[in-house]
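Subject: for your reference before the review

Hello V.,

The reviewers asked for a structural picture of the protein, and I figured it would be easier to keep everything in one thread rather than splitting it across files. Below is the amino acid sequence we used in the manuscript, unchanged from the supplementary table.
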Amino acid sequence: MNKIRFGAQATARRIASALAVLAGAATFVLGGVLQAQASGAGEGARARPGAVDAPAPQSGDEARVRQSGDEARVRQSGDEVQERAALDESEAPQVRDEAQALDWLDDASAPRRAAAVLWLARNRGAEDAPRVAPALHDAHPLVRVIAEQAMWQMWSRSGDDGIDLLLAQGSEQMRAGDLAAAIATFDEVIRRKPAFAEGWNKRATALYLAGEYRRSLTDCDQVMRRNPLHFGALSGYGQIYVQLGRYETALEYFRRALAVNPNLDGVRANIRRIERLLEARERRSV
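And here is what came back from the structure prediction:
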């Protein structure tokens, strides 16, 4: 039976490529600290030049939080959006136009709400993404899944085909592990259209993977000024602060990300890990 897939082939490529990044460049950045600690080598022995030194893990919980943060930052850049649901083409309502899509966003029928979100994802850009945001809290899991994917798709449209091509090129370079090239490409995206939040978010991700945590934080600030609903950047703050050992601050940003998008299971898991870590520290200090 035919299915309406939300970029199925592109999603498969994202997953495979993101895993490759995690196995390569991202592991290189974080693995230096973890492996040096395990082997007794100097702290941060394999860290990239210019990276902010992160404190070495002091417990298994800390190591797990740091490792999961490395993986999550790739996902929250929008380069690993897993396809978790589909609609039967024969059963999916057909949206006529924007007016109907906006009307159906609040419809009692979940298939209509899902169809409305899909229509906006296919036909509108970043400026209309806030209209989709309430669907992240929809009662139906299918609508929530589609809404998350829709927002990433809409955020990736700048309104300029040339800039969109550059963004895609930089994403491919990042997935291939060529972080220097990716950062240079995102530099050009930002130079051409500084108002485009996703250019800043993608560069923040590449900088994070390169171990340039302070610069990544600065880019996250730029994302939030342009797109305060960017749950990816909010999660990104959390992951950066985990790497810097600032767990209370990381917890604050993870909770903010979850408030915008309650479907971030990895963020929820990180919150639990950090809460356990902080509780254990508190017990040791008594």
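For the response letter, the relevant points are probably these. The two ends are 62 Å apart (CA to CA). Residues 1-58, 80-90 have pLDDT under 50 and may be disordered.

Happy to draft the paragraph if you're swamped.

O.
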